[in-house]
Structures are given as structure tokens and as C-alpha cells.
Write a structure and sequence with these properties.
- With 427 residues, this protein is an alpha/beta fold.
- It has two domains: 200 residues, Enolpyruvate transferase domain (UDP-n-acetylglucosamine1-carboxyvinyl-transferase, Chain, Alpha-beta prism), CATH 3.65.10; 207 residues, Alpha-beta prism (UDP-n-acetylglucosamine1-carboxyvinyl-transferase, Chain), CATH 3.65.10.
- The protein contains 15 helices and 24 strands.
- The strands form six sheets. It has a four-stranded mixed beta sheet with strand order 22-23-1-24.
- Strand 12 and strand 13 form a beta hairpin.
- The radius of gyration is 22 Å and the shape is globular.
- Bound molecules: uridine-diphosphate-N-acetylglucosamine (UD1) and phosphoenolpyruvate (PEP).
- The site of uridine-diphosphate-N-acetylglucosamine has 21 residues, from helix 5 and helix 6.
- Pathway: Cell wall biogenesis; peptidoglycan biosynthesis.
Amino acid sequence: MQLTPLHLQGGRDLSGEIAVQPSKNAALPIIVASLLSSEPVTLHGVPRLSDVYTILDLAQHIGTRHAWVGPNSLTLHTPEILNTDAPYALVSKMRASFIILGAILARAGQATVSMPGGCAWGPRPVDQHVKALRALGAEISEDGGNFGAVRHGHLSGTFVFEMLTVGGTHNAVLASVLGGGVVTLENASIDTDVVDLVNFLNTLGARIEGAGTNTLTIHGVAALRGGEYTVIPDRIEAGTFMIAAAATRSRLTLTNVRPDHLRAITAKLTEMGVDILEAGDRLIVDARDRELKPVNVTTQSFPGFPTDVQPQMSALLATVPGTSVIQDPVYPDRLTHVAELQRMGANITVSGYTQVIQGGKLHAAPVKAADLRAGAALFIAAMTTEGETVIDGVQYLNRGYERLAERLRSIGANAWQPQPMLASAMD
Ligand SMILES: CC(=O)N[C@H]1[C@@H](OP(=O)(O)OP(=O)(O)OC[C@H]2O[C@@H](n3ccc(=O)[nH]c3=O)[C@H](O)[C@@H]2O)O[C@H](CO)[C@@H](O)[C@@H]1O
Ligand SMILES: C=C(OP(=O)(O)O)C(=O)O
């Protein structure tokens, strides 16, 4: 079905409560990891997003049967591996799918996976994934856009990542869980999504030590059992709504949050003059009647300021009088939102991965999201204007935000997505 654009009539304050969805970037690797067990696995807290449907299609090709057993609960069962390849048509849709290489390799001893896709903002290398698997004893070949992996016996040994990589750590962990070897990963990512993957695998009987530190030790086990697990809340969605509240100078309560996953965003918004109160799994963001101050932001690996929230921060700072500077060395080309924000009147100058932003007032304009978080920046910007903004590229927003228009309306935004006209209705 063709997706119609998202319409947003700005100029309204946000208010009330919004429940943050479960984490996309934690759920996707956990769904992949479920195929390491031949027994059924039940997951709670799986967001209903197009990326989740894509990874389920890929898992089904590998041999995973699934059934939704609740609004956000899913059972997965992979009694046997039917195919050891991950085809281009599925892998090219989404970056996270590349970690299926490690999972199939662990369970089946060999795998062929197409080079990854995902949001198109520039190069997203996988050299560390390949180096790690090779260092641990896998044979990796590259041919015609595919990576082939074979292992003879179990993986073992030590690998030191050259930089903190979330995906690279996922892939190496998944590849090492089964078998009799001991694997040590140094300079491993301490990202929340890595910790959640390790906690899930340990629930199924894996023996992985060190989650949340830079050294992971994986003692291979003969097999994983089934089990039940709840995925963490989505810190990127939470960050997006925190920034939306600040940009509209509103008061918003977020529920289903892990405040400890949001400290870098909380610190930056507090520095700007926003009041943020942490109360258990709730966060109250209050920017009413505030004269926000410009700030400088540099993205980093967790626990630093996330690259996935950088475009949304550009939209906010474009509304704050004064000069702000944003730098995104994690993904230096993640800038597709800039030209679209400029169409809405934003004063942003780009040099390399640095944005210099002179804040002011934005106006409505027709705009197009070219990737997921660029789309988030655009709906935040649209909410600060007086007019109606039409945002095209909704398929990207659907990758990362559940029932967006409906949920934005529930907190006071005037957002809607017209239904496409059926052919018969147009006759
Ligand atoms: C550290 C970081 O913020 N990671 C984010 C990144 O994860 P994702 O797994 O996509 O990216 P990585 O964490 O692997 O990348 C971190 C950095 O390492 C570099 N790199 C990575 C792998 C590799 O083999 N070689 C290499 O050079 C990347 O270019 C990047 O500069 O995007 C995801 C989706 O947007 C986010 O949820 C993650 O939080
Ligand atoms: C860009 C994202 O996802 P991916 O890495 O799958 O492209 C994201 O979650 O912001």
C-alpha cells in the first residue's frame, strides 16, 4: 500500500503522558539471537515497527516460525535451520540484519549474508565484524556483494575492537555463544542494546560475563534452552519525545523509560534550561515559559550523546536563539535533515561533521525525510511552526516510531496521515 505523507499543524503545546515504545535497536538483535535456540522463546516488549516485520521475514527464511501472542509479545521458534543465506532483498532494507551472519554461523556452522543496508546517510563499514570473526577462527570470504562465513569447530580466542561498535559487538557475541570455546572481546561496546542482548542470551543459558563493561568473556555452551524475556524501553524514542517537549516549550510526562539510559540527553536539555525530573520509570520534561540557551553537542558511543538523536537536536537548536554547534563524529555524513530543516527556515551551516546553528523561528514547508531520524527532526520542527507541514518519506518514520500520528495526537499535537484513496473510491 502506498504511504501518504504525515501532516502536522504546528503551534500547539504538548501535554499529558506518553508511554515510550519498547526498543527497536534492542529488539532486533534479540529476535535474531532467538534463532540460536531450537526451543521456543517468548519476547515481551517488541515494538510493532516495519523493521521488526523485516527481521521476522528474514528469520522466517532462516527457519524461525513466529506468532504474535499479545500487542507487543511474540513467540519465536527455530527447530532447525532451513537456509543459511540471508538474501539481498531482505538484508538491504535494514542495517541491523547483518548480525544474522554471526547467529547463523554459530547455529549452522556456515552462513552467507549480503552486505548490509539501512538508513542511507553515508558509509557504514563492517570491517570490525569481519576482523572479529576471523580473529576468533572463522573463515570469511567476500564475493559479489556477499559475505560467506564458515567455522571448523568452535570459535575461540581474543579480539580487540579498534573502536566501540554496537553492531560489531553483537555479531561477535552471537557467533561465539555456542560451542566449547572461550572468547574474549576487548574494547567491546557497553551500549544498552549490547547489555540487553547479553541478558537475553544468559536467560537462555548462555555464559557471557562482563555486560556493560568493555571486556566480554563468552564461555561457549552446547545449546541454549527456550525462555521468556522483556526488551528494554526505547531510549531513542524517549529522547525524541524529550526533545519534542523542549522544542514546543511544553511539559510532557514519559512513562516506560529507563532514566539511566537517558542521562546524556537529560544533561544537555538541563544545560539548556529544561527541567527534567526522574521518578522511577517516568520522566517529566518541563520547558514551559523557558528561554532556552544554545549549547554545543558532540555525539559519542553510549553513555555519550547518541548519534540517533543528533538530527532531532538540530531541529530543537534551530528554534533556540543564539549559536549552537553540533558535531557527529560517529556518523559524519548523517546530515540529510539539514537541507530539509533549511527549507523550514533553519539557519544551519555545515562543515564536515559540524553544524553551526543560529537559532530562530521556523516556518511550515513541504519536506521529505530521507532517513528515520531525519524524519523525527522534521516532525519536531513542524510542531514548532504556526502552519501546516507535510512530511513525505513516512516509510522511514515507520521503521522507528509506532503509530506515530495517533500517539502524537494523544499528547496534543495536531498530526494526521490521510488514508490513501482506494481505486474504487476514485472511479
Ligand atoms: C556507537 C554508536 O553510536 N552506535 C550506533 C550505531 O550502531 P551501528 O551498529 O550501526 O554502528 P556502530 O556502533 O557499529 O558504529 C560506531 C562507529 O564505528 C564505525 N565502525 C563500525 C563498525 C565497523 O565494522 N567499522 C567501523 O568503522 C562506524 O562507522 C561508526 O563510526 O547506529 C545504531 C543505529 O543508528 C545506533 O543504535 C547505535 O547506537
Ligand atoms: C538508523 C537507525 O537504524 P539502522 O542502524 O538500522 O539504520 C536508527 O535506529 O536510528
